[in-house]
TrEMBL record:
This is RNA polymerase sigma-70 factor (ECF subfamily). The lineage of its organism: Bacteria, Pseudomonadati, Bacteroidota, Chitinophagia, Chitinophagales. PANTHER family: RNA POLYMERASE ECF-TYPE SIGMA FACTO, RNA POLYMERASE SIGMA-70 FACTOR ECF SUBFAMILY. Gene3D superfamilies: 1.10.1740.10, Winged helix-like DNA-binding domain superfamily/Winged helix DNA-binding domain (1.10.10.10). GO terms for biological process: DNA-templated transcription initiation. GO terms for molecular function: DNA binding; sigma factor activity. It comes from Chitinophaga polysaccharea. The keyword Transmembrane helix does not apply. The keyword Transcription applies.
Length: 185
């Protein structure tokens, strides 16, 4: 039985073989494109999730390698597109509500709430993650400068920053959606 047919039938043993055969190659393919271990990990996992969830749609006449790399490439494009749109919305909303507005009570309340949420998110972070994030975002230091000062690798600094941003997104998520809704009025 060929690999595609076995996957279409839901054979987990074959899927595991495909996963272990191609996981590292997909990861390094994405890492080469993005230079980010965080993105490479996320996109690689999403690639295999999509492969399994949409296994019935795999083409019988194409080998699994070609199809996996095609899924990985489109998943990366989707991932980067979503991140860009999300960042633009967050920056727009934060910029709108962090500017001093004398007559806008809602703007002042939103700014205060945003500051409180950010402070809470920072308090919840592990000490090293918080320190790395503050050095990057509040002191304007580069990843290399932080790595040198804290005796860490640049990759470790990058991981701390991504994890900090992910944690902040979690804390600010609901507030950002409320602020976006209020900005329509």
């Amino acid at each position: 039985m060929n690999t595609i047919a076995a996957l279409k039938q839901g054979n987990l043993l074959v899927f595991n073989e495909v996963y272990y055969s191609w996981h590292k190659r997909i990861y390094y393919f994405i890492l080469q494109k993005t230079k980010s271990s965080f993105i490479a990990e996320e996109v690689t996992q999403l690639t295999f999730i999509k492969c399994w969830n949409y296994r019935e749609n795999l083409a019988d006449d194409l080998n699994i390698q070609l199809q996996l790399f095609r899924i990985a490439r489109t998943t990366l494009i989707d991932f980067l597109r979503k991140e860009t749109v999300y960042k633009e919305k967050v920056i727009h909303v934060i910029d709108k509500y962090t500017l001093p507005v004398d007559d806008d009570l809602w703007g002042k309340l939103a700014e205060k709430e945003l500051q409180v949420k950010l402070a809470n998110a920072l308090k919840e972070m592990p000490p090293m993650r918080r320190k790395v994030f503050e050095m990057s975002r509040f002191k304007g230091m580069s990843y290399q400068q932080i790595a040198h000062e804290l005796s860490l690798s640049s990759r470790t600094v990058e991981t701390h920053i991504f994890q900090a941003i992910k944690q902040i997104k979690h804390y600010l998520g609901f507030l950002i959606s409320i602020l976006a809704w209020l900005s329509r009025f």
